[in-house]
Every structure is written in structure tokens, then in C-alpha cells.
Design goal:
The chain has a domain at about 150-203: Roll (Nucleotide Exchange Factor Grpe, Chain A, domain 2). Helices cover about 65% and strands about 15% of the residues. The protein has about 200 residues and is of the alpha+beta class. Helix 3 (about 100-120) runs antiparallel to helix 4. It has four helices and six strands.
């Protein structure tokens, strides 16, 4: 009788263990799909891996090439600026050295005419006058070519202190501070006064 009870208890324990095992298998089967669904999410949420050494080296090479290109452009621009500065300095030096070259060239024929006039053995009044007129014509052409302009005001013009120098004031039947006569012409080079005209003005 006792032996039969022990057998029944053993069978009950085996059946209970079998039930626990079946329950565990069912639980495992239910959890498997959830784990499969969770795996992609875990992969997506995982931090991205840093770029490989190959990509970093490519970027570095590109940056070095760009830097070399910019360095070359800078050196070319610097060389061009140095050449331009050197040419400008040479031009300035030549301008100072040969500033009166054009004027001297225009004055040479005037000197030639004066020398020819002095070579005449028996000059007459008419020949001297003709030579002087020709020389004066050449001189006026030289002045005009080099923008050397006369300051020759007319009687009655208003005195301009920037161009005229009053030597004296004389009684005259005209407005005060107007020019009566020109004692000596003045000259300007372009817009710069070279010599003022010497004048007398009305009181």
C-alpha cells in the first residue's frame, strides 16, 4: 500500500515537472518574436561608427592639395605685385630724370634759328626782323606744345591776386582795382602759376 502511494506521488511530481517544462517552452516561443522585433531597433539606435582611415586620409589629401594651390596663387600674386612696384619705381625715376625732355626738344629749333641769325655777315633790318619773327613763332609753338600759357590780362579786367601782381595804383577813369596796363606778362604751366603778370591797377 505504501509502495503504491509512493508511485502515485512520483507520477504526480513527474506530471508537475512536465507541466512546468511545457510552460517554459511556451514562454520562450512567445518571447522569440519580440526579441526579433527588438533587434533592428537596437541596431538602429546604436551609435554610428567613425569613418574609416581611408576616408580620413582622402580628406587630408584634398585639404593639403587645396592649401598648396592657394600657396601657389599667393606666391604668383606677390611676384606680380613686386614686378608692378618695380616698374612703377623705374617710371618715376625716368620721369624725374627726363622731366624736361619734351620741352628741351621743342627749344632746340629756337636755338638753331638764333645761331643762324648771328651767322649773317651783313644783316639788314628786314632780315633781322624776319629772323626774330620766325624765332618767336617757334618759341610760341614750343610753349603751346608744353602747355606753357601766357597770363596777359586786358585793360579793364579785374585784378586777380592768384595770377596778377600789382606794382602800383594809378589814377584812371575806370573802376577801382581793375588793370590799367601790363608791365610784364605772366605764365602758367597747365593750371599752375609759373610767374604772375606785373600790372598797374586803378585807384
Amino acid at each position: 500500500m505504501q509502495e503504491q502511494d509512493k508511485t502515485q506521488e512520483r507520477d504526480a511530481s513527474v506530471e508537475q515537472a512536465q507541466q512546468h517544462a511545457d510552460s517554459a517552452v511556451d514562454t520562450a516561443q512567445e518571447a522569440q518574436p519580440q526579441a526579433a522585433e527588438a533587434a533592428p531597433s537596437a541596431e538602429a539606435s546604436a551609435p554610428a561608427q567613425p569613418a574609416g582611415n581611408g576616408e580620413l586620409e582622402a580628406r587630408l589629401a584634398a585639404a593639403e592639395a587645396r592649401a598648396a594651390e592657394m600657396q601657389d596663387a599667393f606666391l604668383r600674386a606677390k611676384a606680380e605685385a613686386d614686378n608692378t612696384r618695380r616698374r612703377a619705381q623705374e617710371d618715376i625715376s625716368k620721369a624725374h630724370k627726363f622731366a624736361i625732355e619734351n620741352f628741351a626738344e621743342a627749344m632746340v629749333p629756337v636755338k638753331d634759328s638764333l645761331e643762324m641769325a648771328l651767322k649773317l655777315e651783313t644783316p639788314t633790318i628786314d632780315s633781322l626782323k624776319e629772323g626774330v619773327e620766325m624765332t618767336l613763332k617757334q618759341l610760341n609753338a614750343a610753349f603751346e606744345k608744353n602747355r606753357l600759357v601766357e597770363v596777359n590780362p586786358q585793360p579793364g579786367d579785374k585784378l586777380d591776386p592768384m595770377k596778377h601782381q600789382a606794382i602800383s595804383m594809378v589814377p584812371a577813369e575806370q573802376a577801382a582795382n581793375t588793370i590799367v596796363s601790363v608791365l610784364q606778362k605772366g605764365y602758367m604751366i597747365s593750371d599752375r602759376l609759373l610767374r604772375p603778370a606785373l600790372v598797374t591797377v586803378a585807384q
